[in-house]
Structure formats: structure tokens, C-alpha cells
Amino acid sequence: MIRYLEPWWLLAVIPVLGLIGVYVLVQIRRRTQTVRFANVELMGKIAKKNPGWKRDVPAAVLLVGMLIMSTGMARPAIDTQEPTERATVILALDVSLSMEAEDVSPTRFEAMKESSLEFVDSLPEDYNLGLVSFAKTANVAVSPTKDRAQVKSAIKGLTLDRATALGEAVFSSLQAVQSVPLDGASEAAPARILLLSDGYRTSGRLAEDGASAAKDAKVPVSTIAFGTDQGTVDIDGETQDVPVDRKTLSQMADTTGGKYYEADSVDDLNEVYADMGSSIGHRTVATEIAQWFIGIALALVFAAVFMSLLWSSRVP
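User: That's the sequence. What structure does it adopt?
Assistant: C-alpha cells below.
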């Protein structure tokens, strides 16, 4: 079914319809005057040699072409079904102040961003990718999308804040996964969560609760531990120890069926999505067909000019 993306342009049809009306009136008036004042016997002989329909056809074809062309200005389109990959990966990045520690060069935070950007570049282009950042709370920074530039820009713009809501990060990631449209599929999109953190929860729901929710949703959480036991940060003028909670991060991965990594072993991150599989949905896309209207209109205009030149040696 044809629909119009800019229906207001259909108003361009009105002048053409007016022109058609004027043409019809002129032809009626001409025939009336001809019958009233002309020699009927002589007119009949002329009509046999030059039938009136040859005069009207080129004009009619031209006006129809103009009508189709003016309709094309409203951007006619038809809805088509386009296949789309629904498989989804969520990056959950720790932006707590402890990530400012310099035990991973140049800092945990910068190393995490660098690893994340490399992961974005390695992910298959047809997969959806979302971004969650978490400190005291967790927020969906970028909903699942195939726009890698948007995700990379958001990663580069991350800033640090207080506290670490590890469990909330998983819950927000699951929420992002659920936002992926079904697109005609009968089940949720296959998904993975990749969580990068130094591990210690200081805010929000427990990490165990988040892991349990991810397990129930059948969404594996792979974790990457950034930092060492010697890490320190300066907060409000005081030096604080910020060791890495490897146990929590490892348990989260084990509980959900994900993988656990250290910051120095992130070269094999393709394992995160290697066994994820695929889920193809179909979304409705408006495909413009204005070029069809323009092509048909031009063909009619050329036909009108050709017929007029052939029959009367003039352009209508």
C-alpha cells in the first residue's frame, strides 16, 4: 500500500486539477461555439480528415503526467520488511572514583576505556551494542544500537563519580536488553553483558542479586577485573586503598555462565559473543518510490510531445 511521507505536498495537485478543469471547460466552449457558427456539412468533412481526439489525447496525457509528478512531490513510499539482527551485547563500565587508580597504566579508567573501544571495533557490525555506566547508580548511556560511532563517543565522554553500584549495573543492562524490539520474533534477543570494573560494591542492590537476575534471564555476564591489590586513589585529600574484588567478579561470571578476565588478558574478548548465536527479526521500513512517479510522469510528457508533433507539428 502506498503512503506519503510528506502528505502536505499533495496540495500541489490542486493547481493541476484546476488546469484540467480549465482545459475541459475550454474544449466544451469551443465545441459549442463551433456547432453554433460553423457550416455543419463542411465541419463534418474536416473532422473525418482530422478527428478531434488527436487534438485532445496529447493534452490529456500531458495533464496526467503533471498530475502524477505533483503527487510524487509528497514522497510516496511503500512499506517493506527488512531483516535485522537482534543479537545484543551490553558494555557495563565502572566509572567510580576507584577506577582512577594508577596501578594499571595509565589509570584503570583509561585502560578500561581503551579496552572498551577496541572491543567495539571487534564486535560484528550487525550486532546491537549498548552502553551502561555505573557509579552510585547505573544508567543506560546508549540503548542497543548498530551505530558504533555513538557508542564510542559515549565511552570517550565518560567521567568518574563516587560509589560502585555493581548489582545495579547488571539490572540496568538487562533493562537495556529488554528494550530490543521483537521485530516479529517470538522470543527475546540473544544477549551478553560485558562488565568492566574493579569489583567492590558500595551502593545499590547486591552483585549476587544482579547475577541471579541475569541467570534467570539467560543472559551471561562476562567480567573484566581492572587493577591490583596495591591500587590507591586520592579522595578529598586522603589516600585510600582500592584493591580489586576478583572473587565477586569471578562469581558473577560463573553464576551466569559468562567468562572472567583480568585486565591483562583481554585479547580474547571475542569469546564473549562467540557462542551467542543469531536472531533475525524483521522491521518495517518505508521505501520511497518517488522516482517511479517521476519516471512515469516524464514518460507521459515525452509521449504527449511526440503525439502532438506527429499529429499537429506543435507542442501541446
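Residues 64 and 197 are 67 Å apart (CA to CA).
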